[in-house]
């Protein structure tokens, strides 16, 4: 736990999700619900547009924590692993057909437990300056 402190920002990244991303994710996950790729279907059920898959948003949000744990450059090596992860979906991510959608993720150490060798990392996940995942918490077991 050396070098870690409550309140420390361990990641601050942005990810672009495009319609191509949605197609690739649908193929990988098997989730071919047309609200994820057809504007007309999304509109017919009252949605503001084509939505990113919830699990895609959730997976994207944890990615900077995984990257931080893997380290890079002088920090290369495994710092630990994700041993727990939870979120509450609060708003959809609408993916524009031309510009896509940018998801911003900030990861901050919220709790350190030296006895357990764990840290809780809280995520702030936004799209268009609005939170899309609430109570997004990652439990990390430190190596």
Global Rg = 17 Å
* Count, helices: 3
Which spans have pLDDT < 50 for at least 5 consecutive residues? Answer: none
CATH architecture of the domain at 9-17 and 53-142: Roll
* H-E string: EHHHEEEE
Helical amount among residues, as a percent range?
10-25%
- CATH class of the domain at 9-17 and 53-142 reads Alpha Beta
What is the name of the CATH superfamily of the domain at 9-17 and 53-142? Hotdog Thioesterase
* Fraction in beta strands: 35-45%
Tell me the span between the first and last alpha carbons: 9 Å
Largest sheet: 5 strands, antiparallel
Averaged pLDDT = 95
Write the CATH fold name of the domain at 9-17 and 53-142: Thiol Ester Dehydrase, Chain A
* Structural shape: elongated
Secondary structure tally: strands: 5
* Sequence of strands across the biggest β-sheet: 1-3-4-5-2
Structural class by sheet pairing and helices:
alpha+beta
Concise account of the structure shown:
The protein has 143 residues and is an alpha+beta fold.
């Amino acid at each position: 736990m050396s070098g870690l402190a409550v309140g420390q920002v361990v990641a601050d990244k942005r990810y672009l999700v495009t319609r191509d991303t949605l197609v690739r994710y649908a193929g990988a996950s098997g989730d071919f619900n047309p609200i994820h790729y057809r504007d007309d279907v999304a509109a017919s059920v009252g949605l503001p547009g084509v939505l990113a898959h919830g699990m895609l948003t959730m997976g994207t949000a944890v990615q900077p924590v995984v990257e931080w744990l893997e380290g890079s450059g002088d920090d290369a090596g495994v710092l630990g692993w994700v041993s727990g992860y939870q979120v509450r979906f609060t708003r959809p991510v609408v993916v524009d057909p031309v510009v896509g959608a940018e998801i911003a993720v900030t990861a901050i150490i919220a709790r350190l437990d030296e006895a357990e060798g764990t840290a809780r990392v809280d995520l702030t996940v936004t799209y268009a300056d609005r939170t899309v995942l609430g109570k997004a918490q990652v439990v990390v077991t430190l190596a």
